[in-house]
Amino acid sequence: MFLKLLGTAAGGGVPQWNCACALCDLCRRDPERISPRLQTQAMISANGTRWFLINASPDLRQQIEANRELWPSAHLGRRNTPIAGIVLTTADLDQVLGLLLLREFQPLTVYATGLVRRVLEANSFFRMLTRVPNQLAWVEITPGVPFSLDGVMCTPMPLSDSLPYYAREFSGDDRGEAGLGLIFNSGQARDSGQTRVAYTPSLPAITDELLAAYASCDVILVDGTFWSDAELNRTQAGTPLARSIGHIPMSGEDGTIAQLAGITRPRKLFTHINNTNPALDRSSPEATFVRESGWELGHDGWQLN
Amino acid sequence: MFLKLLGTAAGGGVPQWNCACALCDLCRRDPERISPRLQTQAMISANGTRWFLINASPDLRQQIEANRELWPSAHLGRRNTPIAGIVLTTADLDQVLGLLLLREFQPLTVYATGLVRRVLEANSFFRMLTRVPNQLAWVEITPGVPFSLDGVMCTPMPLSDSLPYYAREFSGDDRGEAGLGLIFNSGQARDSGQTRVAYTPSLPAITDELLAAYASCDVILVDGTFWSDAELNRTQAGTPLARSIGHIPMSGEDGTIAQLAGITRPRKLFTHINNTNPALDRSSPEATFVRESGWELGHDGWQLN
């Protein structure tokens, strides 16, 4: 199983276009100290040849060109792609806009819950992906029900019932279809070297079920959006608290670091890191605390070995 | 008047994500010979401090970070932008998707025809730009009626009544509101050094009115999407001819080069160049023909001096 992170920032990226906070400013002036990060994007492959995108970030064009695994091959004709499909965990713009960059009449397979599919199909822009027959093939996925990505087994876990603001008229008893975590396993038997990875870049709450899943993994990739509940609000008045928009902060008694302190088996990484998170600065006390707590910040280009 | 091109490729960019044609392949292997190009984006300013974006490309996040004129300033508080507004000439995805990257609760002013505004307001994603009061201010523009951008006068010219596929239920007697060209002039009197620039990255036909406008300009930026009518179709079967999708090709008896051969006053540049256009290759006979006909290919970073 191959897995690579092509972007590790929350929506807006690092730096963020309209942000001159100390962190964004330092990132522009001293990228050695605060690395620029593209918006969150991951990809996974059973064989290192055909890849499945995990969500589709607005930076996807740049991410494809920066990662030659995703380049088309001149040996396969003029138009082709090693992208075998896209798995959506949410309908958030920062995780779906990239689909609209994959036009050019290329057939695509998109794995999504019925709810996420309905939200996107209701948006007129998505007609651009259905201009020719068989351009867009949907595969409906269901929380709790594993499916195969070329042999990598992927189990969606229900994490959120909350839809993005633009889709607020969609709703219902959708049992976690709005926001998923994904557990990947390499498909071999557990005792013969199976690898298990959890991908949860957006994490509103940690259930006992998720805790058990994390404990069974070799690597967990966890929501690192915010360091503290109030940091976004301190940067820009009128913006919401972290928990109210579905992100457990890293720090504090009930933050992710504390809640997952007992999970000792897997390698623990944060991804989806917001431009306001002080841990972005390598020389900050927050970054030191992250490291000393046994966590890493995922970075663009990080790969599972 | 300051004007800069931040992207000069047609939709998809150069190289294009799923294209392994000889040109895209060469661009990836030898970027000295075929320069990578971001998707078409321009910006204009009366003073070099406040900028107006001309359309909003899907590559806008990358384009902002690559051009420090567009960075926010730490002296102006934590959240700010030198982007004073965005002028839309069309509702094409490749020219409007970037608006969705300018969220983060930042107030925006968008100049668009009533038709383009209605198309975008009907799209649910655009609700993300109206989450707080006064986040999005529309200024309605009308073909033929000049308006001021901090003193730079901008005259919209009606070029097309054709809406993108995703918006095909919108229509009407909209007298060129679907696709505009823009004529900028620096506002001083004509005989005291006024500068005039035409920006027409998408050009379905050249009317007498447009010809007269071009002849009055110092610089014209013209649709360079295709070299020939059939080139897209030759790269990918089932795709349309250049003229049928609103682009006069460069070459041929009725191509842009021939039709504008009599326009000798302005500096003539092509922009919005598709990845299939052989003139992208500096050492091609087509590139030589372009140069010898008195034209230039605009490039990312090109500036009006």
Characterization of this structure:
2 copies of one chain form a homodimer. The radius of gyration of chain A is 19 Å and the shape is globular. In chain A, the strands form 2 sheets. A 7-stranded mixed sheet of chain A has the order 7-8-9-10-11-12-13. In chain A, strands 1-2-3-4-5-6 form a 6-stranded mixed sheet. Chain A has helices spanning 22-29, 60-66, 93-96, 114-121, 208-215, 231-235, 256-259, 285-292; strands at residues 2-7, 41-45, 51-54, 83-87, 108-112, 136-140, 147-149, 152-160, 179-185, 196-200, 219-223, 267-271, 295-297. Chain A has 305 residues and is of the alpha/beta class.
Tell me the Rg of chain A in angstroms. 19 Å
Task: Write down the secondary-structure element order of chain A.
Answer: EHEEHEHEHEEEEEHEHHEHE
The percent of residues in helical segments of chain A reads 10-25%
Neighbour order of strands in the largest sheet of chain A: 7-8-9-10-11-12-13
Largest interface: A-B, 61 and 60 residues
Structural class by helix and strand composition of chain A = alpha/beta
Report how far apart the termini of chain A are. 9 Å
Shape of chain A: globular
Number of strands of chain A: 13
Describe the sheet with the most strands of chain A. 7 strands, mixed
> What's the pLDDT, averaged over the residues of chain A?
94
Beta percentage of chain A is 15-25%
What's the tally of helices of chain A? 8
Oligomer: homodimer
Unreliable segments of chain A (pLDDT under 50, ≥5 consecutive)?
none
